[in-house]
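Job type: complex structure
Entries:
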Amino acid sequence: MNYLAPSILAADFCELGSQLDIIEQSEVPYIHVDVMDGMFVPSISFGMPVLECVRTRTKRFLDVHMMVQSPERYVDEFMRLGADGITIHVEACDCVHETLAHIKSLGGKCGIAINPETPVEQAFPYLEEVDMVLVMTVRPGFGGQSYIRSCLDKIKGVRSEISKRGLPVDVEIDGGVRLGNLKENLDAGANIIVTGSAIFKGDIQQNIDDFYNIMNEKK
Ligand code: DX5
Ligand code: ZN
């Protein structure tokens, strides 16, 4: 099953509530919440207060992407504030197994993220523990970047390993995904599609419909 996960990083923060309302009326099951600390990535985006507010406005699955150094410090707080899933970067955490287990112990879904330059094999030790692998298709830290095509082989590689092991693990992609490159990413094995600017810039409902027209063809 393919899912769309709009990234609110690309939303108009002066209109975030009304933009979330549009998503609430759509078939979109996930909302991607990009938390950036200015250490693991150059940018600072938002944190607990925004997550707490977003939680009151939507029932959608809050898919928190922690672009944060040592994310284990924040798991309890983010779960308490309403995260449904937390994805940590393999490059940012010295206790990945423990942190994934802790997220699950609090009732959350857990994911492991790998940057474009990180070999896909670095996600393999965690495949039996995670609900999803997030393959970054841009350098983390900014929305609106161009898709890095070399990541396509990494999507194929992780999907093939998951299939070989017969695991129920989702493959999420994140960054630079547009209508024009959507089909090849789905064909490569991605099934949770994070996209920000392609949804929030322009007519949000129409953008969602355009994505689902392609995603539903590729059930
Ligand atoms: C980048 C974030 C992505 C980004 C996606 O560090 O993890 O989620 O916001 O935005 P677009 O789709 O505009 O590249
Ligand atoms: Zn993200």
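Summary: The chain is about 35% helix and 20% strand. Residues 7, 9-10, 32, 34, 65, 67, 138, 140-145, 174-177, 194-198 surround D-xylitol-5-phosphate (ligand 1) (CB under 6 Å).
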